[in-house]
Design brief:
Length: 473
């Protein structure tokens, strides 16, 4: 972590013999097997290790953690450096015999590295040693983007972080060039060694829970089909926004057991309807389009001026194929296979555009990270005129951004390859919104893999669901 000022790295060492290099990666890359392998000599040590970590975590002392496993201490620290995009000064004093520092760097004995605030180091070491846990301060971050290893003030190794990261990623890159889209593979490889400012947030709104008189909850149909899997998170988000979320399977609509006329809202959830064997969402959409009863049911719902609809991921793909039934959806694209030719599961940055979407009302010009999880999210327009119409009619709701806050034109900041970074659209009147990312997976702050410290219980994406509730009144 780089946002806590002056910090230190501490090694918690559970092993009794750092000279046990048998079976290690170091031995393997040198064509050897070795003899004595790492072992846990005292089971009580691992219990104490677990208890200490839990206590430090509860007290907010842990800033980062990584276990020592394949590759030993050096690889552990390199992986932390690569993830945080920071340099590290490593001081090897323990575990080295005579003039050899190899055991201390490459032994795979049980252990872990934690990052803590500098002022906490002495207290943490004292608490660890009180329960017979061996621990040592072994390093600190540096701003020079180098990995430097020293012992007793003598520099043993020094390389730029980017050079080591490039070597670390080379094999994966070469495999990706052969297996996937080679251009995307090159773009991601270049991104790995670039200077990336990281994720950020800009909010032009406050997350506010609507206040309503009475206890009535408007009914929303949480629609699903065979293969859909996102209905529970979606129902939880709408329930938090004071809707009555009702699980509605397509079979219930087909049988007439449930009618859309009983609902004010409809949300089509993410997943893999019919295994996407006919293309993303198409099988689900054709169930509606090729059945005269369902076709009329959905068309009537979309034409009621008091209703709203949301399609996310697979639901977004499905609703795009119903555009002929939806007022003001004429220029909508379809969603096809990602440019990378891979399923993309990422935490990506998006900008909320100025649009008529009732879900994104008063949220425009904000940028927020969001979960992306799809294999077919690249927009495909029938012709150039439709794209122009969508853009000029303020029907683009979301765009991918690079971490430099420019419109994402390349992979992986634009994970599906859509023109203009488009990943969310709406109808002309804003009552229907489609998006490939998953707001229902990040509506609570704790569901986000990264977030600013000042966020409360509700994450910013909860505002989307609150806006739907305000629309109903």
């Amino acid at each position: 972590r780089t946002d806590y000022g002056d910090t230190r790295l501490i090694l918690l060492d559970l092993g009794a013999g750092l000279d046990r290099l048998g079976g290690s990666i170091l031995a393997q890359v040198n064509g050897q097997v070795g003899d004595i392998v790492p072992d846990l000599d005292d089971p009580a040590v691992i219990k104490n290790f677990f208890d200490i970590l839990q206590m430090l975590n509860r007290e907010g002392e842990l800033l980062a953690y990584h276990d020592r496993s394949d590759g030993g201490l050096l690889v552990t620290l390199l992986e932390m450096s690569f993830a945080g995009r920071v340099g590290i000064d490593i001081n090897i004093e323990t575990g080295c015999k005579n003039d050899s520092y190899i055991p201390g760097l490459f032994s795979e004995e049980l252990g872990a590295v934690i990052q803590v605030k500098a002022g906490s180091v002495a207290g943490i070491i004292e608490r660890c040693r009180a329960v017979n846990l061996c621990c040592h301060e072994i390093g600190r971050l540096n701003s020079r983007q180098i990995i430097r290893v020293s012992r007793s003030g003598v520099e043993l190794f020094c390389k730029p972080r980017s050079d080591l990261y490039k070597a670390w990623s080379e094999l994966s890159y070469q495999m990706s060039v052969l297996r996937d889209n080679s251009g995307c593979a090159q773009s991601e490889f270049d991104y790995l060694i670039s200077e990336d400012p990281g994720l950020s947030v800009k909010l032009n709104f406050q997350v506010e829970t609507p206040v309503f008189i009475g206890t009535a909850r408007p009914r929303i149909a949480v629609l699903r089909e065979q293969g859909v899997n996102g209905q529970l998170e979606m129902a939880a988000a709408f329930d938090r926004a004071k809707f009555a979320a009702v699980d509605v399977h397509m079979s219930e609509l087909l049988s007439g057991e449930v009618q859309l006329s009983d609902f004010v809202g409809l949300v089509a959830c993410g997943g893999f309807s019919y295994g996407d064997v006919l293309g993303a969402g198409q099988g689900w959409a054709k169930t509606i389009l090729f059945n005269s009863y369902l076709r009329d049911e959905f068309r009537d719902f979309f034409h009621r001026s008091e209703t709203f609809s949301l399609g996310v991921c697979n639901g977004c793909q499905m609703l795009s194929h119903l555009r002929e039934l939806i007022p003001g959806a004429e220029p909508w694209p379809f969603f096809v296979r990602n440019l990378s030719e891979q399923f993309e599961a990422r935490f990506s940055l998006v900008r909320i555009e100025k649009s008529s979407s009732i879900f994104l009302n008063n949220m425009s010009e904000s940028h927020i990270p969001i979960v992306v999880s799809h294999g077919e999210g690249m927009v495909k327009f029938d012709n150039e005129e439709m794209l122009i119409d969508l853009e000029t009619s303020n029907m683009v709701a979301l765009r991918f951004l690079s971490n430099e806050l420019a419109e994402a034109s390349s992979y992986p900041a634009n994970p599906n390859g859509s023109v203009g970074g488009i990943t969310g659209i709406c109808s002309r009147d804003g009552r229907v919104t489609l998006m490939m990312p998953h707001p229902e997976r990040v509506f609570r702050t704790v569901l986000n893999s990264w977030y600013p410290n000042e966020w409360g219980e509700d994450a910013p994406w909860m505002q989307l669901f609150y806006n739907a509730r305000r629309f109903v009144g």
